[in-house]
Design goal:
The chain is mainly α and 336 residues long. The chain folds into 3 domains: 61 residues, no CATH class; 115 residues, no CATH class; 98 residues, Type II secretion system (T2SS), domain F (Receptor-associated Protein). The chain is built from 14 helices and no strands. It is elongated.
Amino acid sequence: MAADFPNFCRQFATMVSAGLTISRALEVLSKEGYGRLRRVAVSMRNEIASGSTLTDAASKHPRVFSKLHINMFRAGEKSGHLESVLYKMAETAEKQAKLKKEIIGAMIYPTLLLHAGAVIPAFITWILADAMKDMNKGAAAEPSANPVMLVAAILGPFYFLLFMVLFLSKYGGLVPPIKWLMDAVFYAIPFVGGTIRKIGIARFARTFDAIYSAGLSMVEAVGSGAEATGNAVMEFRLKKAQQGLLNGQPLAEAIADCGAFNPMVNSMIATGEESGKLEEMFEKICENAEFEAEMAIKRLSKVIPGLIYGCVAIWIGMLVINIFGNYVNMLNSIGG
């Protein structure tokens, strides 16, 4: 479904810009070969036919449309520029899919190396241990380690961690306390947290710009932008900024006080507010944050393989030391 989503949005945008009604466009999409998205299109068309807005219809499919998508739909409907919003959604989804492929591609060789580094030395150790035991039959020798247990010792934690990450990423968001905990932990991790903040800034800026330029209030734009960040910690802080606006604070002051963004972004918001070019400034903030987030993710995709290489090197080094230690002990026992 993830691979079909950009095409779904792009075709939706093309039909809307060509003058088709939303209901008619969804009817066409429901006949296209988009698997689960076909059923979603049918459901949304039925909802719209019964009087719901596109935003309300999309919000009933949280596994397909995130909060960011819902807020972008709302902004597009209220501004009358739904097609441009849909094109932006398609572009964002394509970028995410491209980054995901790059990360997976960067992880293939290190993962294979991890398995080879666990399996091959374990069996070599087992074979050498048995050979040494045969050469030193007269002495009391310790039983050789089972190679399966040696492999499990290093791959077991890896697969457990992988399972937990996949499980929590898929189902953790459905339980608010677990989502809060996950978001807070990732937000606090060095480098990872910085990447999350950059992505959150880009999403906030994009949503704020779309909603505020549509003529909605600044308070509503900040609230929608907060929900679009995708991180509970950033959302909580930006909700405080929203409350500050309700209390009469200027936007730049409220954003700076909440502590969600770095000083550079706060300064850009203040400059945009003072110059009366807030929408243009948020567009620049979004472009800069998206670029920095993309670069950070690419760096992260290089750091993780490096960590795997390091773990494999340490593991092999420990096995080599163990083999030579046993060999020296055997020679000493024979010489004695």
